[in-house]
Design brief:
heterodimer, A: 333 residues, Rossmann fold, two-stranded antiparallel sheet, 37% helix, B: pyruvate-formate lyase- activating enzyme, eight-stranded mixed sheet
Chain lengths: 333, 333
């Protein structure tokens, strides 16, 4: 579900007409496929309104800001809608905020700077044009809230004003036309939906939260490595036989780790085989699991000097050279 | 090429600035008081370099020459890098600049006389041989036919026989240096990867054959030339691909013609790795088996990277490169 954010109700008029909707609060409306939020003007108001809705409405997965803005006449055309790429902010002290946000729109090539106060002079506008050709009052704040809530963010700005001219034009008379233009931009928004990760969980497996994260990471990496889709990769998995779903999951993850990094997997297996021979209730040799060092660790329980000497004698046959070679990637073939 | 050229007031009469502005006479120019008011003032997404790249011409203030990190370059001499530019026109997917600077805009510093003075001072204070590297934050030759700074350095280094200058490049742009007098203490080093890696990961850089031809031309004119096999990116066939590359090199020059070859395996700081994931989420490189390593960088497992380094080093020795010509880069083992 998407939420469409407008500063003013007039900007949203075509959207109200486009789909039947019901009022949830005086500024929040719900239609079949989207919510409409009237945020009011300015970053403070936009932040408050969107935060309230996102905090209480988890079904929303994308935020789309649509509205009028002022443009640099040398780079933008009046009465055109521009998909926005990056959002900057000018603070109240007129310095630029370092933090910026980028929309999910990969085709967008125009940036916007949201200002705390209305720009009153061409001199002020020119300072901001160093960073973006479009100025508005809310977009950065909406992007910031969206990022905090991990929602996709898109933004479209209709250039209603020349930012170098002092007075803002009255848009009341042409509000309907502006809103229609914004509606067309919205309807043409590419629907580039990612595969739902739930669809990529194979049946018959039980994943803990950590295992699921690891599975998704491995799935993505192996798909890139093999240059196939995750679905194709899943289809290529063998069937694992285990009584418990959790054991099946462990086998699957081991299989995937081996596929991602056969070289390191092989080394770990051989190290495990070697160290298993020196592992019992009172003696254990282990290697650095990160494989980042040659360090070996010895844990030993003993009850007397003779007992210690006996147990240490067991290590006489430990193949140090072979282990060091493995840890250093030598003689592996 | 540039969406805008920003020029600091204090360098606008500089000869190099005039040449650059003349060369890019279609780009709009704006004069500014300090590049620091614009560069990295806001977080500008890295990939905006594709459509909105600004060129900034400025004077570098503060420290102009710095010590390199440990394990840098050949031998145990002192190694320094100097800062004559920030950022690069190329777009290599593994490039650390995407996480290092907060803007992809290119800054060219034109106060080379001051950089050279600082180099001379270090040279005079250092009793033994000392190296100076260009290209830590930028490609040394990519724009050099326009920036034309290297003749100044040639003059300086001709008077400092125990100081070595290394220019690093992924270009084949040798126009600005090929007619200079070769000096035994100036080495032009070319980063080489396999043909498929260059096509996949090194966007806008010179193709492999063009780099090899440029190297051949410089060698025939008597220049000292070095090679960096760095970064090596693992594939199922990486060793055989590097073997092919070494064979291909022999069609252009002989091992004796090469001053040194460094070998390094791809590695990232955590910040850069996150940027790579953000900027190139579908890159096959990310299908590689990366782990957090001993120094908190993201690398392949230690056995794998040592195996890769050793295997490629061995291929170089088989092809006739001597032990003292080959060194392993940025790896403690």
């Amino acid at each position: 579900m998407q939420i469409l954010c407008f500063a003013h109700r007039l900007e949203a008029s075509a959207f109200f007409n486009h789909a039947p909707n019901k009022s949830i609060t005086p500024y929040l409306f719900k239609a079949d496929k989207y919510y409409i939020l009237i945020t009011g003007e300015g970053m403070q108001s936009a932040t408050e309104h969107l935060t309230e809705v996102l905090a209480t409405t988890p079904e929303i997965n994308a935020v789309i800001n649509l509205g009028v803005a002022a443009g640099n006449p040398e780079q933008t055309e009046l009465n055109h809608v521009y998909p926005i790429r990056t959002l900057y902010r000018q603070r109240a002290d007129l310095q630029m905020e370092f933090r910026s946000f980028t929309t999910q729109n990969k085709e967008a090539q125009f940036d916007v700077t949201s200002t705390e106060t209305r720009i009153q002079s061409s001199e002020d506008a020119n300072k901001i044009f160093q960073f973006s050709p479009i100025l508005d009052r809310e977009a950065w704040a909406l992007a910031s809230v969206s990022k905090r809530f991990k929602k996709d963010f898109f933004c479209f700005k209709y250039i209603s004003d020349d930012a170098t001219k002092e007075a803002c034009s009255q848009i009341k008379d042409i509000a309907e036309e502006i809103s229609l233009t914004l509606l067309n931009a919205y309807l043409n928004l590419p629907t580039d939906k990612n595969e739902n990760t739930e669809d990529l969980i194979p049946k018959g497996y039980h994943f803990t939260f950590t295992q699921k994260n690891e599975y998704e990471k491995l799935l993505h990496k192996i798909s890139l490595k093999k240059n196939i889709s995750p679905k194709q990769l899943i289809a290529s998995f063998p069937t694992f036989n285990a009584k418990k779903p959790n054991d099946k999951t462990k086998l699957l993850l081991t299989f995937m780790q081996e596929h991602l990094d056969p070289f390191t997997f092989n080394i770990k297996q051989r190290l495990n085989e070697i160290t298993a021979k020196y592992k019992n209730d009172s003696l254990k040799v282990s290697y650095d699991k990160s494989l980042e060092s040659d360090d070996l660790e010895l844990n030993i329980k003993f009850t007397s000097a003779d007992d210690l000497a006996n147990k240490l004698r067991n290590l006489d046959s430990f193949p140090f050279e072979k282990v060091l070679d493995l840890l250093r990637g030598k003689n592996v073939e | 090429m540039w969406s805008k050229i920003l020029i600091e007031d204090n360098v606008k009469e500089h000869k190099q600035v005039k040449t650059i502005v003349e060369r890019f006479n279609k780009s709009p120019v704006q004069y500014i008081s300090s590049y620091e008011d614009y560069f990295q003032k806001v977080k500008k997404p890295y990939l905006q370099k594709r459509s909105d790249l600004q060129l900034i011409l400025a004077q570098k203030k503060g420290s102009l020459v710095k010590l390199t990190p440990a394990a840098y370059g050949v031998g145990n001499e002192a190694h320094y890098y100097f800062i004559h530019a920030y950022n690069c026109i190329y777009e290599c997917q593994y490039c650390y600049l995407q996480g290092y600077f907060q803007s992809p805009d290119i800054v060219l510093f034109v106060n080379h006389d001051e950089i050279i003075e600082e180099i001379k001072q270090i040279y005079n204070d250092t009793k033994s041989e000392v190296w100076f590297h260009a290209g830590e934050f930028s490609d040394s030759l990519a724009l050099s036919h326009i920036t034309e700074e290297w003749p100044m350095y040639w003059n300086a280094f001709s008077e400092m026989p125990n100081a070595y200058l290394e220019l690093r490049t992924k270009s084949a742009n040798i126009k600005s240096i090929e007619n200079l007098q070769p000096l035994k203490n100036i080495i032009v080093s070319f980063s080489l990867s396999t043909d498929s890696a260059i096509k996949e990961y090194d966007s806008k850089t010179a193709p492999l054959k063009a780099r090899l031809s440029a190297m051949q031309k410089l060698i025939q004119k008597g220049f000292k030339v070095g090679i960096h096999f760095d970064p090596i990116i693992v594939t199922d066939t990486v060793i055989s691909e590097y073997t092919q590359l070494i064979e291909q090199m022999s069609e252009y020059f002989q091992p004796k013609d090469i001053s040194y070859i460094s070998i390094g395996v791809v590695r990232f700081t955590k910040d850069v790795y996150q940027q790579v994931q953000k900027n190139y989420p579908d890159s096959p490189m990310l299908g590689g088996p990366f782990y957090t390593s001993f120094d908190n960088k993201v690398r392949y497992s230690r056995p794998l990277r040592l195996h890769l380094l050793r295997a490629i080093e061995s291929q170089l020795h088989k092809a006739g490169y001597k032990e003292q010509q080959v060194y392993l880069c940025m790896e403690r083992d």
